[in-house]
Design goal:
Blueprint lengths: L1 H18 L1 H10 L5 H21 L14 H18 L6 H15 L1
Helix pairs in contact: 1-2, 1-5, 2-4, 3-4, 4-5
């Protein structure tokens, strides 16, 4: 089911980042600012993640017009920023438990 797939993806991302806090900081904090080419790649990645989120979610035809067309990109960007904030604060170990809250937010919002 779609919510379980969202949760599994967030769990995997959190575990990957926890496995190497230095790499997590490099990928999610240091490279995310100041380098235009990296910022552009980050934007493209977030758009791909938003597309995956959009394509996987069940959406009854009756509610198709109720969501903003950019809802998924805003939500994936917010999730990535939250991961980055936790990593920047030296709280990388808090990422796996965060996936439960993020799953609820993403699934409920969409």
């Amino acid at each position: 089911e779609w919510p379980e797939r969202v949760r599994a993806a967030l769990d995997a991302a959190g575990e990957f980042l926890v496995s190497d806090p230095g790499l997590a900081r490099l990928l999610c904090v240091d490279l995310a600012v100041g380098v235009p080419a990296v910022a552009e790649e980050r934007r493209r990645l977030l758009e791909r993640l938003a597309d995956l989120l959009r394509s996987g979610r069940p959406l009854p035809e009756a509610s198709a017009g109720e969501l903003r067309p950019d809802a998924e990109i805003h939500l994936t960007t917010a999730a990535a920023d939250l991961f980055g904030e936790r990593i920047a604060a030296g709280e990388v170990e808090t990422l796996p438990p965060l996936s439960s809250e993020l799953t609820e937010i993403l699934v409920t919002a969409l």
